[in-house]
């Protein structure tokens, strides 16, 4: 009798405590607790919001100019992204190289760019190299990188 | 005695079985980190603005190099972080009687909420190397504001202003406005600057302002 009872107890214990895998972890993907009409700031919510609006998930705007002058040159690059969309991730890189290489040369460079602000992440990088190498040379560079609201 | 013990264990096992009957929730697989009932913490937006690392060199005799760089970032509302880098600029007037003028303005994101705001407007070099040369550098960096227990780290220091050539002039102005962290961590560093007039008859002036509110 005692053996049967002990066997039953062991069986009951094995049944009561099965292997339990960890179900929690990682980045929160959605907020199931929020009501349907509330704005969902979780990642999935923002992705859904972007897709529903017809906007791309990510947008990258790159403007790069190289202006080499042996006499007199002028370069103007203007790029504005005004689609009215706000992507999930927005990247913008504005870079320019302006060189007045020879004697008496003149190099003028103007680069302007504007990109929208991303819902989740916005990266804006502007970098320029401006060199007046020749004697009596003139190198003028203007760079502008804007992030819209 | 044994029978009582095993019967008690059996009863305990039965209670545990009843508690474990509830099925696993597939929806909970998607939650992460610290489990908070009702509303899971959302991942806030972030903003990275890099307007520094510019190079402006007037190399030839009587040459003139003028550079103007402006980078304007966006604003971030809510729990996010913003990183603004407007420093590491190089302005060198290397040629005789050359003129190098550099102006760099970087406005990074502003976080209105509990987040992190890191701003760096320092590590700039302004060097007048040539005989009778003139190097003028102006660097303005405005970084983030992190409220309500956030962190704000601002660095506007580590600048070098050097008038090396004979009768040269080096003028450097660095302005860094960093974060505000109410009830949080606010670190500001505006030191470690060097202003040197090494050349004969040279003149070097440096103005470094670092504000951590």
Write the layout of secondary structure elements.
The complex is a heterodimer of chains A (149) and B (213).
Chain A: H1 2-16, H2 43-53, E1 58-69, E2 72-80, E3 89-100, E4 106-115, E5 121-132, E6 138-147
Chain B: H1 2-19, E1 46-50, E2 55-58, E3 64-72, E4 75-77, E5 81-85, E6 90-93, E7 99-107, E8 110-112, E9 116-120, E10 125-128, E11 134-142, E12 151-155, E13 160-163, E14 169-177, E15 185-189, E16 194-197, E17 203-211
Parallel strand pairs in B: 1-5, 2-6, 3-7, 4-8, 5-9, 6-10, 7-11, 9-12, 10-13, 11-14, 12-15, 13-16, 14-17
What's this model, at a glance?
The complex is a heterodimer of chains A (149) and B (213). Chain A is α/β, with parallel strands linked by helices.
Which keywords apply here?
heterodimer, A: 149 residues, alpha/beta, 3-stranded parallel β-sheet, 2 helices, 6 strands, B: 213 residues, mainly beta, 5-stranded parallel β-sheet, 17 strands, 8% helix, 45% strand
Task: Give a verbal description of the structure.
The complex is a heterodimer of chains A (149) and B (213). In chain A, 17% of the residues lie in helices and 44% in strands. With 149 residues, chain A is an alpha/beta fold. In chain A, the strands form two sheets. Chain A has a three-stranded parallel sheet with strand order 1-3-5, with no helix packed on it. The longest helix of chain A is centred in the first third of the chain and has 15 residues, at 2-16. The model of chain A is unreliable at 31-39 (pLDDT under 50). The longest helix of chain B is centred in the first third of the chain and has 18 residues, at 2-19. Chain B has 213 residues and is mainly beta. Chain B is elongated, with a radius of gyration of 29 Å. Mean pLDDT of chain B is 78; it is low at 16-32 and 34-42. Chain B starts with a helix and ends with a strand. At the A-B interface, helix 1, strand 5 and strand 6 of A face helix 1, strand 1, strand 2 and strand 3 of B.
